[in-house]
Amino acid sequence: MITASNDYPKEIVLMASNEETDHILGFESSTDIKKLIKQAKEVLDKNWTGKFTKPTSGLYPHQWSWDSCFIAIGYAHYNQERAEKELRHLFSGQWNNGMVPQIVFNSDDEDTDYFPGTDFWQTSCSPNAPGEPDTSGICQPPVHATALLLLLENAKDAEKAERLARELFPKIKAWHDYLYRERDPLNEDLVYVRHPWESGQDNSPVWDQVLKRMDLEEQDKPDYERTDTKHVDTAVRPTDFSYDRYIYLVNYFRDRNYDENEIYRDGCPFLVQDILFNSLLCRANRDLARIAGWLGKDALPFHERALKTAKAVNNKLWDEEDGIYISYDLRADQHISGHSLAGFLPLYAHIPSPSRARRLFDYLDTGSFCELDESCFAIPTYDRRREEYTPKKYWRGPIWINLNWLLYHGLTNYGRQRYQHYIKQSIIYLINMSGFYEYYSPENGDGYGSKDFSWSAALFLDIIGLKRIELKDEM
Ligand code: GLC
Nearest Cα to 327, choosing from 349, 311, 342? Predict the structure, then answer.
């Protein structure tokens, strides 16, 4: 049982003593939430550079786009200044065409061995790249409006937060405009990703069919040296087969000066309408509409975009047979059959109808992901009953805090409190047991990848409702 001492904030006592789920998880140790809060803040302090927060030292020494959004969501509870700096620094790397890049490179630390670095990307060959700072030439899922909205909602200094919102609103609008203008050539209200890294779920089994089709000739194989495996165990990282293709794609974009028309027209081998990216975009439109309302601007265009994308997701990306959402491989003109946790995340954007949500739930609440009445950890990234599932390997099975956070919030829209509660407890349990890891084994909860991972710490602070806790303590 998780037990809570008397001086715990009431919410946590309530949250940590739901006997139903405690029993399912088999909790035995006592969780000192305050100790975990302190540790989470220490992780963020350690990764804070003065300008932005690294996902972690060593393996990821620069600023990553969706990481920074999740990190800002955590800071919004207790350090508004850092949350604001985080987002401002990220947007200082925004391209002229509106793209928010996957990486803004850390110019203060040229000592890192990160690959591919600025000399490999060479994004200055694009007229759209900013001169300063240096960035990569791809993007990541659009959670920026969501982060800004949560910052507005949680910030202590409302005036300052509103100033930031006024500054970032046109930039986020330009980012969404870019996606619909340049990543939706068929005008389907669905945007494509052109690299597995753009999906944020680098080596998900969902990409296997596309990567396998990329049959590289010897002369197409890029010449490079991986550095990720110097920092963490090779067994928990993508294979060389995948990496060759990741790097081949970077070469492909650079050879075309990152010109989107050329990349599409020349037949870029990886073009996917990803279910997670499009769901997050749909939600980001709704969140931008709320920000527009907050600032006294016209919210309608963003609502309209959200509705159109929701409709397109329902029309094109729903798998009626299996009751889950899936991605679409534009090059092969066919659906991708892999079933990942991302296939449930249209819930986060309120996309499924109640009947589809029921079907999703019938699948989620089974041994394929996590059946509440059996002992399991919330919630693996990939269907555990499928052959491709690998409990240790990055996005091929392990539990990630960010996807669980999205699912947790998605369930709010559909009244699944018991499952929601379970996810929250399981996150606390995993962190208490193993620390703030990048990802966790669904089999035994062990932490994998890098230690002291920023978004695990930041989203933990958000999911436990740190602001409420601290306000209470002040009273
Ligand atoms: C990995 C993850 C990606 C994350 C990045 C930095 O590439 O797959 O989602 O943004 O690391 O943490």
Answer: 342
Q: Does residue 228 have its Cβ closer than 6 Å to ligand 1? A: no
With a 6 A CB cut-off, is 382 part of the ligand 1 pocket? Answer: no
CA of 253 to the centre of ligand 1 (A): 20
Condensed to tens digits (0 to 9), the pLDDT of residues 45-71 reads 999 999 999 999 999 999 999 999 999
Q: How far is the CA of 200 from the centre of ligand 1 (A)?
A: 6
CATH 1.50.10.10 fits 10-474, yes or no: yes
Among 57, 105, 115, 197, the mutation site with the greatest number of ligand 1 atoms within 8 A of its Cβ is 197
Residue 373: pLDDT over 80: no
DSSP string, 199-265: GT-TT-GGGHHHHHH----GGGS------HHHHS-GGGS--HHHHHHHHHHHHHHHHTTT-HHHHHH
Q: Give the residue from 431, 98, 412 showing the smallest Cα distance to 260.
A: 98
Q: pTM of whole model > 0.70? A: yes
What is the per-residue DSSP string for 69-125? HHHHHHHTTT-HHHHHHHHHHHHTT--TTS--BSEE--TT-TT---SS-HHHH-GGG
Burial class for 251, CB neighbours closer than 10 Å (0-12, 13-18, 19+) = middle
Question: Does ligand 1 lie within 6 Å of residue 302's CB atom?
Answer: no
- Boundaries of every domain in the chain: 10-474
